[in-house]
């Protein structure tokens, strides 16, 4: 094992969950956060000890997407780690920030674990949050093999499955499988905000499933969507067009057009089931 | 107990599940279906015995929405039961059919259990399918108290919660909480039909939840949507408008507009959680 000491920068849900998973594998974990209460809580949960500048093998930067670049630059300036990765849910913008700030790209592996909960903060952390989940890694032309090996080890120790993908391809993919579906769930759930009690009494499991992720933190999702605006907008436009077309078809009695959408939906759903 | 003998007409998922629940409470259950194999399978599952014209307390008409009226008329003509209910997911059309066909409306209680599975047919039936679920009842001005009492007993024996609501109000409500969300789930899932393998590898639990119901039978849902076309179209138009507006706001950087939708979504979701 080459990953023996790790630093987690940002002890929120994702950072603390990764720290807990690493601790379970006997990796020494150091914790850092701008909020001292967040570090204290993560320590009390057994996620590691407070970071006092110790040099580590890998630093996991678990801060909001728009802060990744500057945090990476600062950590590299003090030679905090041999390698660095982040967990932001968009990749092109943080990479562009890192380049702009003159970061060393050989030791940086952009990453994104596809896992989360509706709750945030260290108290919501789970040692098995990443178990069986995909974890995207977006090495670029400059990425060094040592950094990639350490980051792959992190993914493996967290029980996740590494998916290597280009940054732009990643952002388009998560627009389709995560970001746009979040906005769609919000739009369905938004219709319930003014619904009467009898209507709500008829809500079943299907609606609860469709809208579950709409419970996510609006300000966190504002940041995520802002960082991936164009790919998300493109997917939303296509879904909006399909829904408007279905509405028009229902009104005109063109049920074949509606059935075609239902069939395509069943096909698409089948590709991610089982 | 006044419900001692029941007839289930249509031994699909819903009919057979109701039959199993009634059998568990020692109600005598008779089974009927145009498909002899469906009746045989339901009998083998312990759902009851084949109906040979015995008069019962309550007939549960579990056939597609557009067949409810004619089946009710035929059953009433042979005095099959003291009371009748149906389980169709729309209510205004079957009631209009029943009126048009001259059915006795005093013995008919339109009903709709809000429960289902992605699979259909008697083999998918579950004795606890309705447990804890809402079951809409839409008695009209003509509905007799004896019929309503028997139907309420059915709901109770199935472990469900009766929700009394007018037929038009029901149809608008289920457009919002069930039918439109199904089309939305299909539209999200349809985007996956042509996605590449790396994109699908990044799919997480959130997407699986949002799209789960899109696995439902397209031809069954075609019928359901056709029977509730205008209310569903109205909801779909509003959701499509919200998504197109969100796409436009993302492109122009108007993040407050996006955040407002996310907030309304979190509010709406909160009304059906817990």
Tell me what the structure shows.
The structure is a homodimer of 274-residue chains. By secondary structure, chain A is of the alpha/beta class. The first copy, chain A, has two domains: 5-165, NAD(P)-binding Rossmann-like Domain (Rossmann fold, 3-Layer(aba) Sandwich), CATH 3.40.50.720; 170-270, Orthogonal Bundle (6-phosphogluconate dehydrogenase C-terminal fold). In chain A, 50% of the residues lie in helices and 14% in strands. Chain A has helices at 13-24, 36-44, 68-77, 92-100, 145-157, 167-190, 197-201, 205-211, 218-226, 229-252, 255-270; strands spanning 5-9, 28-32, 49-50, 56-61, 81-86, 108-109, 111-113, 134-137, 161-164. In chain A, strands 3-2-1-4-5-6 form a six-stranded parallel sheet, sandwiched between helices. In chain A, strands 7-8-9 form a three-stranded mixed sheet, with helices on one face. In chain A, helix 1 (13-24) links the parallel strand 1 (5-9) and strand 2. The radius of gyration of chain A is 21 Å and the shape is elongated. The relative contact order of chain A is 0.11. The model of chain A has no long low-confidence stretch (mean pLDDT 96). At the A-B interface, helix 6, helix 7, helix 8, helix 9 and helix 10 of A face helix 6, helix 7, helix 8, helix 9 and helix 10 of B.
